[in-house]
Amino acid sequence: MNTLQVRVVRKIQEAQDICGFELASLDGKPLPAFSAGSHIDVQVPGGLTRQYSLCNASTEQHRYRIAVLRDAASRGGSTGMHDAVHEGDLLQISEPRNHFPLQHAQRTLLFAGGIGVTPLLCMAERLAEIGADFRLHYCTRSAERTAFHAQIGAAAYADRVQFHFDDGPAAQKLDLAREIAQPEAGTQLYVCGPAGFIEHVVGTAKALGWGSEQIHLEYFGAAPRDTAGDAGFEVKIASTGKVYAIAPDQTVVQALQQHGIEILTSCEQGVCGTCITRVLEGEPDHQDMYFTDEERAKNDQFTPCCSRAKSRLLVLDL
Questions:
Q1: Phi first, then psi: what are they for 19, rounded to 5°?
Q2: Strand ranges (DSSP E) for 194-232?
Q3: Residue 185's CATH number
Q4: How far, in Å, CA of 200 to CA of 1, rounded?
Q5: 308 touches 287 (CB < 8 A)
Q6: Where in the numbering of this chain does the 2Fe-2S ferredoxin-type domain appear (predicted)?
Q7: Would you say residue 99 lies in a domain?
Q8: Which of 128, 143, 185, 296 has its CA 20 to 30 A from that of 239?
Q9: Which residues contact 162 (CB under 8 A, 6 or more apart)?
Q10: 43 burial class (0-12, 13-18, 19+ CB within 10 angstroms)?
Q11: Rounded-to-integer distance, Cα 120 and Cα 117, Å
């Protein structure tokens, strides 16, 4: 994965507990191009790597813009960005990647929950630029916690955005069943935000008859998982034939690392797909939020940072 060094040219308070960062190249040259829905990996002070969606217009190459929510349950990523990164600092990032691409559609519906607005904001910019038919529903706890509120209000596409505040009057809250009551063959739905928000949108859409091929989602973090029932299992490395035990309280990545076998990771939550490893034999217990149901059913790859095994042994293409 190619990495770039960039400078933080601007850091601003976008909303309560949300900081925005504008990144630019050191020599003033254009940054690698990106498409709506792209993200970058950022090496956060303290040694962590985290993924942040690009939220500026994809036509811009002089800067990347990201926004970071301070997470009360942060493992060091969001607090590192908020507290240890300042204007003028240098950061190491990856080139943009896109696991959440915008597809051509007759109509596009965007549903953002909190900081999940970042990739959808980039999509709105792109859709507005090409004159596409779209609508953005942006749900937050309050106006004070709504990043880009003023920017969206001043945008040329402001009339295609609806804000929904948890603490606001009932009349302005999102009535999802009404908004997507009639499945439309030429319409695509995109949703990003907390796991509960995504599950609500996806579950409602499917219950109303929307097809899986019309629904696109991106998680920003994994929901807490009950690990009480986790059992040990074994993995076999195909290239050497060696077998290693994975304890109930270990991930595959952690266990193999103890034996000098490194698997590239990033989010460590099964969200980003960095650690995806091919499975040659055995049945994974998928705990990721990256693969589709169809991809999981194939059982030919898994995310060793969080997923486990249903079979006694997994043979990995390592």
A1: -105, 140
A2: 215-219
A3: 3.40.50.80
A4: 34
A5: yes
A6: 233-318
A7: no
A8: 296
A9: 135, 136, 137, 138, 172, 174
A10: middle
A11: 5
3-class state of residue 178 by DSSP: helix
Q: Within this chain, do residues 179 and 273 fall inside the same structural domain, yes or no?
A: no
Report if residue 227 sits inside a domain: no
- pTM, two decimals, is 0.80
Residues in the chain: 318
Is the Cβ–Cβ distance between 206 and 176 less than 8 Å?
no
d(CA 152, CA 161): 8
Tokens describing residue 28: 């003033």
Cα 114 from Cα 192, distance rounded (Å)? 9
Whether residue 196 lies inside any domain: the answer is yes
The pLDDT tens digits along the chain (318 residues) read 689 999 999 999 999 999 999 999 999 999 999 999 999 999 999 888 888 999 999 999 999 999 999 987 666 788 999 999 999 999 999 999 998 999 999 999 999 999 999 999 999 999 999 999 999 999 999 999 999 999 999 999 999 999 999 999 999 999 999 999 999 999 999 999 988 899 999 999 999 999 999 999 988 765 555 666 788 999 999 999 999 999 999 999 999 999 999 998 877 778 778 899 999 999 999 988 788 788 899 999 999 999 999 999 999 999
Question: What is the spatial distance between Cα 315 and Cα 255, in angstroms, rounded to a whole number?
Answer: 15
Instruction: Give kind and range of the element (H or E) at residue 50.
Output: strand 48-53
**Residue 162 corresponds to which tokens in the numbers above?**
């609806």
